[in-house]
Amino acid sequence: MARYQAGIRTQARIIDATRQLLGEVGLEGTTLKAICDRAGVRAGSFYNLFASKDEAIMRVITDAIGTVDPDPEGAGTDTVGDLVKAYARFITGQSTVARIYLQSVVGGSIADDALAKRFLRHHERRVRRFAEAMRRGDPSLSPEAAAQDAELLLAALNGLAFRWVLQPSFDFTGHIRRILAMDERLRSAGELSL
Amino acid sequence: MARYQAGIRTQARIIDATRQLLGEVGLEGTTLKAICDRAGVRAGSFYNLFASKDEAIMRVITDAIGTVDPDPEGAGTDTVGDLVKAYARFITGQSTVARIYLQSVVGGSIADDALAKRFLRHHERRVRRFAEAMRRGDPSLSPEAAAQDAELLLAALNGLAFRWVLQPSFDFTGHIRRILAMDERLRSAGELSL
DNA sequence: CTCTAATTTGAGTATTCGCTCCAAGTTTTT
DNA sequence: AAAAACTTGGAGCGAATACTCAAATTAGAG
Known about the structure:
The structure is a homodimer.
Chain A: H1 5-29, H2 32-39, H3 43-49, H4 53-67, H5 80-93, H6 95-107, H7 113-137, H8 143-166, H9 172-189
Helix pairs in contact in A: 1-2, 1-4, 1-6, 5-6, 5-9, 7-8
The structure holds a DNA duplex.
């Protein structure tokens, strides 16, 4: 949409404002007026550059999801522990986006199908990474079993993130460490999956 | 508020309508008008019996949470497997409430502190149940370790529920069975926690 | 420099929301 | 029979929402 420098800069200001607001006041506080006020722009300008409010919000979310992809090159040398740590960093570092992510999935307020599918693809990519790392750690693991174990481990991680949203004082990183220690123990013990 | 039969019946109709709507159109579709239309009541009557729309919604949620409490007597003979099964039944049977539950925790739209605290208490009670069952299965487990393991197991269960909301075709019960099998294996193997 | 198109403005619109108030009538309890 | 609770029907408030549009301004390609 934007072709001139002015438009491009304005777009960037709007995205920045949207990102800030999502972090500060959440999804429901991020109104059009709030975005425009913070970006220093009238509603007319906004709609000259964006088709809808949701478009701006989706841009923020998808941008954030894209940037937190661990090991985007997929070098294939990560251990399960590395991936768990990367996940924990995502949650604690980008707690805003994490919350929005949970919120969008569960709420359905923004969740048009496109976004839901995107989240799903993101999740599946992550499952694949985890499964590959698991098989590197234990080559005897079948691809199917690894995928299921990965799904389960990620469920636990998401559940801990959820728990953290429910109670910010919850010791999220402590439980992550616990998972890491368990992974360590299991690997040295061999056999038992997950 | 309601003291006469008429008021009590109307209250029940309103609660029913609210519950149905939450299931059919979600939190954001459950407007005052929708509730009143379905209950066959004018707004004036509604506010004669409820202080606010949120009060009605909170009643539905807290009622639902109360009814799904497994083993309300707390007989103390459940195994971890029983509790996992009970949880799975809660999710698959009361998926509406489960979704609202996740939504309320994560969304903050209804989440006044009272409701958040209630959810937290509910979760903590569940953690306690799980931890007790774990210690019955393995008396050598310290209370602290059991509590942490319970927290982790519940995180995994919540994560699976979340995953199911994200993709309704997800094999939720299959993964639950997987957890049950894992629990079985670990118990026969002794030692390793969770 | 000029002309076109992108951009911005400022003042809207239309709708929905939760909620209030009231007068009049009905039902239930005391 | 009196009092209290309840319902109706409606009008309407104030605030918020996402969004629109004509006109003015500005940027940039030629």
